[in-house]
Automatic annotation (TrEMBL):
This is GFA family protein. Keywords: Lyase, Metal-binding, Zinc. It comes from the Bacteria. It comes from Pseudoduganella flava. Residues 108-119 have a biased composition (Basic and acidic residues). Residues 105-125 are annotated as: Disordered. Residues 6-106 form the CENP-V/GFA domain. Belongs to the Gfa family. One of its GO terms (molecular function) is carbon-sulfur lyase activity. InterPro entries: CENP-V/GFA (IPR006913), Mss4-like_sf (IPR011057). The keyword Metal-binding applies. The keyword Lyase applies. PANTHER family: CENP-V_GFA DOMAIN-CONTAINING PROTEIN-RELATED (PTHR33337:SF40), GFA DOMAIN-CONTAINING PROTEIN (PTHR33337).
Length: 125
């Protein structure tokens, strides 16, 4: 079986990445930090092994923001696209934003995290 590859880029195209699958899980995170970072109801991520992640171009354009004691959020410093979230408590994993992937991620999103802060304005499923 061919190894799954995920690819993505930021809005301006200066940063591009690839990551080897498989995806451990994909999730919608409704924590207030993800809401602020994404300007949306949630951050949506695919969790993969960090060893299989690499920048194809533009690594020098990525800035990390320490949003908590252990959380780091990577984004393009030119266009602001959120590219990933990672935890220093799990250095072998990285969570890539689904909205940056090309082609579009077609796997399932199995988890919803921090549903206690899920916005009330979201439509009911």
């Amino acid at each position: 079986m061919e190894e799954q590859k995920l690819r993505g880029r930021c809005l301006c195209g200066l940063v591009a990445y690839e990551a080897a699958g498989p995806v451990s899980h994909a999730s919608h995170c409704y924590c207030t930090m993800c809401q602020k970072q994404h300007g949306a109801a949630a951050g949506t991520y695919a969790n993969v092994a960090r060893a299989g992640f690499r920048f194809e171009r533009g690594e020098e354009m990525v800035t990390e923001y320490a949003s908590s004691e252990h959380g780091r959020r990577g984004f393009c410093r030119v266009c602001g696209s959120t590219l990933y979230w990672r935890s220093e408590q799990a250095p072998d994993r990285i969570a890539l934003t689904l909205g940056t992937m090309e082609p579009e991620y077609d796997g399932p999103v199995e988890r919803e995290l921090h549903t206690d802060t899920k916005p009330k304005w979201l439509p009911v499923r």
